[in-house]
Amino acid sequence: xxxxxxxxxxxxxxxxxxxxxxxxxxxxxxxxxxxxxxxxxxxxxxxxxxxxxxxxxxxxxxxxxxxxxxxxxxxxxxxxxxxxxxxxxxxxxxxxxxxxxxxxxxxxxxxxxxxxxxxxxxxxxxxxxxxxxxxxxxxxxxxxxxxxxxxxxxxxxxxxxxxxxxxxxxxxxxxxxxxxxxxxxxxxxxxxxxxxxxxxxxxxxxxxxxxxxxxxxxxxxxxxxxxxxxxxxxxxxxxxxxxxxxxxxxxxxxxxxxxxxxxxxxxxxxxxxxxxxxxxxxxxxxxxxxxxxxxxxxxxxxxxxxxxxxxxxxxxxxxxxxxxxxxxxxxxxxxxxxxxxxxxxxxxxxxxxxxxxxxxxxxxxxxxxxxxxxxxxxxxxxxxxxxxxxxxxxxxxxxxxxxxxxxxxxxxxxxxxxxxxxxxxxxxxxxxxxxxxxxxxxxxxxxxxxxxxxxxxxxxxxxxxxxxxxxxxxxxxxxxxxxxxxxxx
Length: 489
Ligand code: SF4
Ligand code: FE
What we know:
Layout: H1 6-14, E1 20-22, E2 25-27, H2 37-48, H3 56-59, E3 60-62, E4 69-71, H4 80-97, H5 104-124, H6 128-142, E5 146-149, E6 172-176, E7 180-191, E8 198-201, E9 216-221, E10 227-231, E11 257-268, E12 272-275, H7 281-317, H8 324-349, E13 352-353, E14 359-360, H9 363-373, H10 376-388, H11 398-402, H12 407-413, H13 422-436, H14 446-450, H15 455-465, H16 468-479
The structure holds iron/sulfur cluster and fe (iii) ion.
Iron/sulfur cluster is lined by residues 90, 100-102, 104-105, 191, 295-296, 299, 443, 447, 451.
């Protein structure tokens, strides 16, 4: 079955025996847990759109490995057009979920490991690429959700992995056996980890001599023995345990991050794609980072579309939409959103082919895209908070709105202009609240800052990718320090 439906995806999660912890308790049925479920719904949408005829071209493609129709989230990008479609699909899903839909990390990791294993084999005469293709076929044929696991907990940031007083601060190989390896460590704030069938583990930084045990890339089922998920909190998460849906804001969808602990997990050789090749750790990190920084030119503008829509709706409800400064601020929000998207599209169209045959986005533009993402969503939130008004943080609860005693006051004093009811205003304010600093905010604020790497990581790449010698030469020529351009012979 190459294309699962949303329902089949949700049902398939029920079969996992994952060890999930939240508020100090083990959750037996994470699928129906009110705090977890919205994040499952967000991924489920990536399965649903694959069956919508109008999005067939965006959400599905033909596998170059199996020849079958597959979900784009399990695909290899075989052209710059595929890279463009990825970003457009991400914008669509950002628009329809208003949050992080989590499935992109695995898709980006798949493409980074595909090309890196090819080049590793070329140099080291290993057989990682063939193994990886076999594993990917299995993923595509079963339309599985993969989490890309990169970020280690890192311990003392000034020390190399092999210098850490506690060797488990970076995921590492603790045993090499005849039938496979045993790994230990933890991956921090892993997106969609609990909701995925498989995890694809990669090193977190460029390794050096001595870090061989830390240069490991492999795949394992999420419910493998020794894997423990400790669910990450989100602002106002306990609102999901209350009665009603208004106070949650974005009630249907949400993001998810968890600490993924790997406590002596066995991985058979056929699932190992890097084992000690320190010289290829940097390649997989850099390629994955570029893919995911390009991805942010899709999801973040999509979420921005919802935020500007909610903000504009509030100005309608308050009957201030025609005011000059309001229109100016809405236009500014749209300008920021389209700039983010333009960057993601530019990084895609300027992509190049790897030796393995799949495509990479332009590294410089992907990093510029993500650098903008560390800033613009904050400005978008500031403008949304400005226009939505102070009620954003002072509205009463849904229980008060429904109260037989005080409900009439809430309805009277929170109603908007014309026929706009208090409930409509409360719902819209709650949605903006959840997107700017509440439940789904992580995917729009702090996640925009640190997801796919913190801003300094992008600055380093921008510095590395910008040809400053050539730029200085341009200036020297025009300044007359070097010979000027000859226009005639
Ligand atoms: Fe996808 Fe964006 Fe979430 Fe990354 S942050 S997994 S690109 S939705
Ligand atoms: Fe992210």
